[in-house]
Amino acid sequence: MKRRITIIGAGSFGTALSVVLARAGNKVQLWAREADIAYSINKQHRNPSYISDVTLPDSVVCYTDLEECLDDPDMVVFATPSHVMREVATNLKPYFNGDEIVVSVAKGIENDTFQTMSQVLSEVLKRKIIDDHIGVISGPSHAEEVSKFKPTTVVASSYSKRTTKIIQDTFLTPMFRVYLNYDIIGVEIGGAVKNIMAIAAGILDGSQSGDNAKAALMTRGLHEMKRLGMQLGASQDTFAGLAGMGDLIVTCTSEHSRNRFVGFNIGQGKSLDEIVSKMNMVAEGVKTTRSVLEWSKKLGVEMPITAAVYRVLFEGEDPKDMLYDLMTRNPKEEIVI
């Protein structure tokens, strides 16, 4: 079944998904804040600011007016950064009719509330959209590769099995494979925490700490991710899958990873402000580090790598001291049942 889909956010991933969904035969509308992006997409079929080397299908139309963009779609995909999810959803709420499937592809935890993106949407859209109509897509899926039809595999998850299957059917193409996973809290925790670990991995790469250190970091990072998720009721199997280990691997190792890029430059001696000021895309892991560390303390969950990344990002700790602190923690068993 082909659907009318509105994608909120014409950044790199929103743009990449517009290509995938349009090529699958869906009617796709994009919403962009910037008028120049909308004009370029509509007239030249290219996004001048994100993945600008990719030609969008002629059928993709871009708007800057929220009400016009929400002209009775079957599905609304939120591809906005996590820190503006609440604001954008609040502005959109009046235009929902209540029948839409709502999908988040953002990966982050909201500061202060410690809510996942599906929880933010559930809270903001209550009395308009029921929880069973809210879901997520997550997994190893850099926009640069998705937009060029390189093989990509992700998971769909939702509060409802029916909605999860609708999301799978809508996004599924020969080069964009979608698995079902009904553990939505685990899927979202994996997608958020792996960005913190990617910053740490980048720091190791930038400071030339070696492959052994990076392998250990990714392994122990996966353990932190699982520990937090299971405290919140997630299944440990989720973290061995695409939304956990899969996304962790690609984000910690890929040249496309914004979070690894931030960490790499910190490892090279640059300041966070200097790095972020020169980026035109959002590294979700920076804000997520703050929220996840505070959340873990509230829950009593030990997350030493997250705490170490926080000290480097926000307290000015030297990356070499971060590594030394992690390497000299009290020895213990690797796996505690």
Quick synopsis:
The chain has 15 helices and eight strands. The chain has helices at residues 12-23, 35-44, 66-69, 85-92, 117-124, 143-146, 161-171, 184-206, 211-231, 242-253, 258-267, 272-277, 284-299, 304-314, 319-327; strands spanning 4-8, 27-31, 61-63, 75-78, 101-104, 134-138, 152-158, 176-180.
Instruction: Assign the CATH architecture of the largest domain.
Output: 3-Layer(aba) Sandwich
How far apart are the termini?
46 Å
Portion in helices = 40-55%
Number of helices: 15
Give the strand line-up of the largest sheet.
Answer: 3-2-1-4-5-6-7-8
Question: What portion of residues belong to β-strands?
Answer: 5-15%
Describe the protein's architecture and organization.
- The protein has 337 residues and is an alpha/beta fold.
- Helices cover 49% and strands 11% of the residues.
- It has 15 helices and 8 strands.
- Strands 3-2-1-4-5-6-7-8 form an 8-stranded mixed β-sheet, with helices on both faces.
- Helix 1 links the parallel strand 1 and strand 2.
- The chain starts with a strand and ends in a 10-residue tail after the last helix.
- The mean pLDDT is 95.
What is this structure's SSE topology?
Elements: E1 4-8, H1 12-23, E2 27-31, H2 35-44, E3 61-63, H3 66-69, E4 75-78, H4 85-92, E5 101-104, H5 117-124, E6 134-138, H6 143-146, E7 152-158, H7 161-171, E8 176-180, H8 184-206, H9 211-231, H10 242-253, H11 258-267, H12 272-277, H13 284-299, H14 304-314, H15 319-327
Parallel strand pairs: 1-2, 1-4, 2-3, 4-5, 5-6, 7-8
Antiparallel strand pairs: 6-7
Helix pairs in contact: 4-5, 8-9, 8-10, 8-11, 8-13, 9-10, 13-14, 14-15
